[in-house]
Amino acid sequence: MSNPVPMPPDSRKELARKLKQNGLTDQEIALACGVSSHSIRLWRDADKRAAAPPALLTKDECSRCRTVDVDRQAYAYLLGVYLGDGCLTHKGRDVYRLELACSDAWPGLVDEAAEAVAAVMPDSKVGRYQKSGCKSVGSHSKHWPCLFPQHGPGHKHTRKIELASWQDEIVANFSQEFIRGLIHSDGCRAMNKVRRQFKSGERLYEYPRYFFTNASDDIRMLFTDALDRLGIEWKQNNARNISVAKREAVARLDGFVGPKF
Q: Cα angle at 47 between 44 and 53, to 5 degrees?
């Protein structure tokens, strides 16, 4: 009788996970996978560590937790951009890179994102890396998870997104900057065209309109809550789109957002 072909390590780990879900003991799983019970425990511990969120830094390690606070106005804008097109990437040990995906079509927004990163994390060098159709703007620091506790595994729209109490306070005081960051990342100002038929012929009407599009219900609510605080009227067009179309409301947004540049 020929010897069985050994399973690849990743296949063994996947089999071990499935058998554990079915209620088998470590010894039974080890026998089925052809490894020791100690290996099964090591794999399980590694899975737990991978699933756990990054630990927050202590008060004497993080600028957010110390008496020296961040630039709140810049942070409100940066938070909006992060919630739209940002993420944290673990670079080893305690170091993370904040990455903001900024379209090449709007070079002014690339500069503004870089300025906000530098203002919030002045001790960290801001880098720009070219990708397909966009630049990744960001910097490295062990403090980013403290500044963005919304960081976690998976896409933002697949998990709960809510602000910490100190973030709520900043957004409440700098709602314009927060809205501007959200629109710069996942929004736009466009001309809406409407054709009307009259006896004298067809007429074309154009008027400006703002859109914000995001798959996360929580992030869309943060956007509309900020609009409500400023008394700016909005409407939900569909499951993912919020529009601001009334003339007075558009004029308010034009005052601090305006077209992308």
A: 140
